[in-house]
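User: tokens in, sequence out, please.
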């Protein structure tokens, strides 16, 4: 199974944290989280190869450090959903029959989480792993070609389930703690700060610890 990660530039990420983090802090945090996700994918027994689609050179360099296939996002591919579709076309060209779509802001994900999600997938179905509120889609396993409409964004979890139903696909929901926490806002960052202390080896944990961010989060929480 191939893994697909659509990633925008680190400097463009996490705008909803602008009230508490500087642009440099948001960029470095995004890079650290991306490294942790790549590390989990690299350690998964279910993932044969990783494809990262991006228009950002720094993202490409980080992905290359994990031997990922990097695909430059074409100028006419606009938005996350279009990027996912284009990436799936690329992995299909490599002969992939199934793909795991993941995002770069779930740093608590482990290889075991990914193997569990992959093993839960049934051929001819769609497997969704939601965020903590069951509104977003943090992980997805689908066959190639994908027979549903990608609707990442607000309420994507329900939209993906509806699309699967309309296309006659069995849709399985698999809640995975390491995938459910994506970091978009201050509340997410506070929860991440608490949970990641048990995993000090992660790049995200190390970044939070060596900067003033962890002290800031502790004070805010």
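Assistant: Sequence out:
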């Amino acid at each position: 199974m191939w893994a697909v990660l659509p990633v925008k530039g680190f400097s463009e990420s996490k705008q909803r944290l602008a009230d508490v983090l500087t642009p440099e802090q948001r960029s470095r945090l995004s890079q650290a989280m991306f490294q942790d996700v790549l590390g989990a994918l690299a350690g998964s027994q279910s993932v044969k190869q990783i494809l990262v689609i991006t228009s950002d050179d720094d993202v490409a360099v980080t992905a290359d450090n994990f031997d990922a296939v990097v695909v430059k996002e074409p100028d006419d591919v606009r938005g996350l959903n279009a990027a996912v579709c284009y990436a799936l076309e690329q992995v299909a060209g490599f002969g992939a029959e199934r793909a795991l779509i993941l995002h770069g802001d779930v740093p608590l994900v482990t290889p075991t989480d990914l193997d569990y999600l992959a093993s839960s997938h049934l051929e001819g179905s769609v497997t969704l792993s939601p965020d903590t509120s069951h509104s977003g889609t943090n992980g997805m396993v689908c066959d190639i070609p994908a027979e549903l409409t990608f609707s990442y964004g607000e309420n994507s979890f329900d939209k993906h389930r509806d699309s699967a139903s309309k296309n006659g696909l069995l849709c399985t929901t698999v809640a995975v703690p390491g995938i459910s926490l994506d970091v978009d806002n201050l509340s997410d960052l506070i929860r991440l700060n608490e949970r990641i202390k048990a995993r000090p080896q992660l790049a995200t944990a190390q970044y939070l610890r060596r900067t003033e961010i962890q002290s800031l989060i502790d004070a805010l929480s």
